[in-house]
Design goal:
The protein has 402 residues and is an all-alpha fold. The chain contains 15 helices and no strands.
Length: 402
């Protein structure tokens, strides 16, 4: 595996820390800025909205740039907005910095995914995807718990400063390791945008992208409100929040690693198994939330299933979208973060409706049921179309013999 692929994973680690760290800081932000828990949770949604909008927009804007230049520009903007976020006393300004930071993160993700898979042969594309996505899981293991510890001892702003500082080595690593050529460095003209969009909006890809959005919506719905669930429903002290986040991240890293090895060979089996297990797992966490030992045991398992399934879905999109070398990564990022937008929003609605701190977990289970229905309906439609084609082929063959 080229060292540049691991460099991309390092940069994603810094950005993933920012994306996920609010799950351990929402209470502190809400108290400091005098807003509700659901308003603090919307900071995660604002980041996700920026990712949804930014992925295709930034990918299109930078499709003719040298990829090293694009990656460095996105990282520089990301660092700058975190400095502003750490300094501002305004919730509204913080909300804007989350959105702008997400635009930069989305651009980086879109370029990084396509860059990583372009550097390896087909048999290693799943592993290359897993390395990049693995940066997020390492953020969950190390960065997010560390952010929670910083928030507990020195306030939530210290976590924002830490993200800005940790991002600086990633800037240097990208500068030294990533080739500076345009696109995929094949020397050929870029694929026309219209052709890329046609490939990405075909009947094979639409259900996969929708499924990815629902799976990630379920993940972010619970993850965004994990801290109040553990401290106010499970009864754990604040010191257990970083531990729980680290457990989720450790499980996520294991899931990404396993999925990276099997997603290329058996993508459908990995996705179907993971989705079914997730539907059952989120329901189990909702039922077991009042029992600390059971809740702590389920958290790493759910992290493993969520990120393993998500990695397999990204790999499948990139494999099906070979005709869209620029926008495949962008559409994967958009679907991933569309779920991250809807999930916290839906969880916040359930909280504001007075259904209790377990409500977001039940919403996660419901989103997984919807994902399974989409997958089942799609599979049934494909079988029906295949059945309609086979008799026609048989009739043509019979006429030929006559």
């Amino acid at each position: 595996m080229p060292i540049a692929v691991y460099v991309l994973g390092l940069a994603v680690f810094a950005q993933g820390t920012s994306e996920f760290m609010l799950s351990g800081l929402v209470s502190g932000i809400a108290a400091d800025l005098d807003v509700s828990l659901s308003a603090a949770g919307l900071l995660t949604s604002a980041f996700a909205v920026g990712m949804v909008v930014g992925a295709p927009l930034m990918a299109l804007s930078s499709r003719t740039w040298p990829r090293r230049r694009a990656l460095l520009l996105f990282l520089a903007v990301f660092v700058a907005v975190h400095v502003v976020g750490a300094l501002t006393p305004s919730y509204e300004v913080l909300l804007v910095t989350r959105f702008v930071g997400a635009l930069a993160n989305a651009g980086f993700w879109a370029v990084a995914l396509t860059t990583a898979v372009s550097m390896v042969p087909d048999r290693l594309k799943g592993r290359a995807t897993a390395v990049v996505v693995g940066g997020v899981t390492i953020a969950c293991v190390v960065g997010v718990p560390a952010g929670a510890v910083l928030g507990e001892h020195w306030g939530w702003r210290s976590a924002f400063w830490a993200v800005a500082i940790v991002s600086l080595p990633a800037v240097l690593a990208v500068l030294r390791s990533i080739p500076g050529g345009r696109g995929t460095d094949t020397g050929s003209a870029p694929v026309p945008v219209r052709d890329e969009l046609r490939a990405l909006t075909g009947p094979r890809l639409r259900p996969v992208l929708l499924t990815m959005a629902l799976v990630q919506g379920a993940t972010f719905c619970t993850f965004s409100y994990l801290e109040p669930l553990l401290t106010r429903e499970t009864g754990l002290g604040a010191g257990w929040v970083p531990v729980s986040l680290a457990l989720f991240g450790a499980g996520s890293f294991a899931g990404v690693t396993v999925a990276g090895r099997f997603a290329d060979a058996r993508p459908v089996a990995v996705v179907a198994t993971g989705m079914t297990a997730l539907a059952l797992g989120w329901a189990a966490l909702a039922l077991a939330a009042g029992h600390p030992a059971l809740a702590l045991a389920l958290i790493p398992l759910l992290g493993m299933l969520a990120f393993g399934t998500g990695t397999a879905l990204i790999t499948r999109v990139l494999g099906l979208a070979s005709g869209a070398p620029t926008l495949a990564g962008a559409f994967s990022t958009t679907a991933f973060n569309l779920g991250a937008t809807v999930g916290p929003w839906a969880g916040g609605l359930a909280l504001d409706a007075g259904f209790g701190y377990r409500a977001p977990v039940w919403v996660s289970a419901l989103l997984m049921v919807l994902a399974l229905l989409v997958a089942a309906t799609t599979a049934k439609g494909r079988r029906s179309r295949a059945g309609e084609r086979r008799p026609s082929a048989v009739r043509r063959s019979a006429r030929g013999r006559l």
